[in-house]
Design brief:
- Among the domains are: 143 residues; 82 residues, no CATH class.
- The chain is 47% helix and 19% strand.
- The strands form 3 sheets. The protein has a 6-stranded mixed beta sheet with strand order 1-2-3-4-5-6. Strands 10-11-12-13 form a 4-stranded antiparallel beta sheet, with no helix packed on it.
- Helix 3 runs antiparallel to helix 4.
- It is elongated and about 110 Å long.
Length: 369
């Protein structure tokens, strides 16, 4: 924790824990409702927004491309000097074809695996790399061949040397194009995404603020968060951060795919959280507190409704008391289906009648009433 910031728009008596650098003053205030207090702020680490697999894949693509160019220039030289057999030349050409194809495929993959960039941006980068690489390569080769001055080639050796120079020049220009599209631009987009990324926990909600140019937010009620899981790889562990998945659907917390969990609307993913274990512990404490407050409010509401309908005191205990088996509310007023209203004594929620199960079932506890 590197500092504390005011907890809410109208209160400075409560302070919020700040994991990482303190966010700009007033960043979260526009997202807070009246009376809501900020409890935790998180500034993610930049390393989490840089795709190491993409860098490795693009590096392999450039290396394979260089291998293909080397095989091609060797084949050209051997064809001129006659030092290789026909079988050797055929093998060299096969290596050239394999290396170029593998480099092209890896270049496309490297452009689309930047998971922090929006999917439409990654799709555009993949199309640009897939179409641009062969275009740049063949355009460079053809234009340089057309620019050869008449009479500058007076022997087979000079022809081979000129062609080899053109091939290596095409390698330099195509590699520069690949690095620009598949590395430099995604790195800049990742830097913008990290610059606008902040996470927060209030006494009511989970907040995620981010975006490339402008800022947008995602949120979920704390009492609706079922689980908080950590996805922490070897590199992330060595750099002191982890990815948190705050699941809003039972069984949806998949620590191996936080992006997929968020994309399907099953939770909120926080990337690059410093001190992830401590943040998770604080999140669990706030979740339990919010859940108890929600259950107490539901109990009070149901007790009031029960008293108004039956004229008697609500028989169920408060949520903090021992939980007996749920029972139907005696003497309750019939509902619109002509059935008695049942109150779950575990949580105080009104239970609905299920014809398939043959009785009242609490939607909150998923138990018979």
């Amino acid at each position: 924790m590197s500092g504390e910031i005011p907890a809410g728009p109208e209160s400075t008596s409560l302070r919020a824990q700040a994991f990482g650098p303190v966010p700009p003053t007033g960043l979260f205030r526009r997202y807070l409702t009246p009376g809501e207090q900020l409890r935790v702020t998180v500034r993610p680490k930049l390393a989490a927004f840089v795709s190491v697999p993409a860098i490795v894949i693009v590096g392999l693509s450039v290396a394979l491309y260089a291998l293909g160019i080397y095989a091609a220039t060797s084949a050209v030289t051997a064809a001129v000097t006659g030092g290789w057999t026909a079988a050797a030349l055929q093998s060299a050409l096969q290596i050239v074809g394999f290396a170029f194809l593998a480099a092209w495929i890896l270049a496309i993959i490297g452009a689309v695996v930047w998971f922090q960039a929006p999917r439409w941006v990654r799709a555009i980068l993949g199309v640009v790399v897939g179409l641009g690489l062969p275009y740049v390569f063949f355009t460079t080769v053809v234009l340089n061949i057309l620019n050869i001055r008449p009479g500058s080639i007076n022997s087979a050796a000079s022809a081979a040397s000129t062609l080899n120079g053109i091939l290596w020049l095409s390698f330099a220009e195509t590699s520069a194009f690949l690095v620009l599209i598949a590395l430099v631009i995604p790195l800049l987009l990742s830097l913008l995404a990290w610059r606008n990324a902040y996470y927060a926990l209030t006494d009511r909600r989970v907040l995620k603020v981010g975006g490339l140019v402008g800022r947008h937010s995602r949120e979920a009620r704390l009492d609706m968060v079922y689980d908080v899981s950590i996805n922490e790889g070897g590199l992330a562990r060595s750099l002191g951060y982890g990815d948190l998945v705050l699941s809003t659907s039972p069984g949806s917390g998949d620590p191996l795919s936080p992006a997929r969990t968020e994309r399907k609307g099953l939770g909120i993913a926080w990337y690059g959280v410093p001190q992830a274990d401590e943040v998770r512990q604080v999140a669990h404490e706030l979740m339990e507190g919010a859940r108890r407050e929600s259950q107490s409010a539901q109990y009070a509401q149901m007790a009031s409704a029960y008293q108004a309908a039956s004229g008697g005191a609500y028989p169920g205990p408060p949520p903090s008391a021992p939980r007996p088996m749920p029972t139907a509310a005696p003497g309750a007023a019939p509902n619109r289906m002509g059935l008695s209203v049942a109150i779950c004594s575990r949580c105080g929620t009104a239970a609905g009648y299920s014809s398939e199960r043959g009785g009242f079932w609490c939607a909150n506890c998923n138990a018979p009433v």
